[in-house]
Specification:
By secondary structure, the protein is mainly alpha-helical. It has twelve helices and no strands.
Length: 235
Amino acid sequence: MNKSVVTNLIAAIAVLAGYLLSSPILLTVGLFALSGAITNWLAIHMLFEKVPGLYGSGVVPSRFEEFKEGISHLMMKQFFTEENIERFLSQQGSAEKHIDLAPVIEKLDLSPAFDALVSTISQSSFGGMLAMFGGTEAIQPLREPFIDKMKASLSDISQSDQFYELLKAELEQSDVIDDMRVKIEEIVSQRLNELTPQLVKEIVQDMIKKHLGWLVVWGGIFGGLIGLAAALLQG
């Protein structure tokens, strides 16, 4: 059972028991504990829900645009700064930290390269000879071996130090970094625009419920202790 519900239930039972048993101390402890727990529970609830008549409630949905702008500002000003991008690129200089382009190369469609090769051969002086052996259809079985060989060669080239030095030199140019930051900002903005107030509410609510639930528990405990102190002082 939810610890907030348990805390409120225990406090309510203390109030009821104090009333039925005519125990002022137990009644006071229960009332103070219940008020502390309910107050903290209401504060958590007001983060996500608009409560009529309570100014400042529903802060997450009402400040949704500011929430998105804050995330965007944090991403671009703290993580994707020009200095951080340059630092990342400089760390790629050593052979141990080379960027692995093999997954990208593996996804490349190199069929157009094979088609261009076939077209070049058919239009060359070898075209007539090729026609004698069935034309371009005769070399179609070479498509897959050609593509596999090309990908393997590209992977080998991309792992060479010379290639990385050239890539690094190009990426470290200021206009390239600026263009990279613009594209990153566009991606971040696009992703943030896909968020809705309800989705943000669910994400944040699920994330902090486990932690903020203890506010209700401690509100009930401290409320009960204050109630006990007040009852003893009155006695």
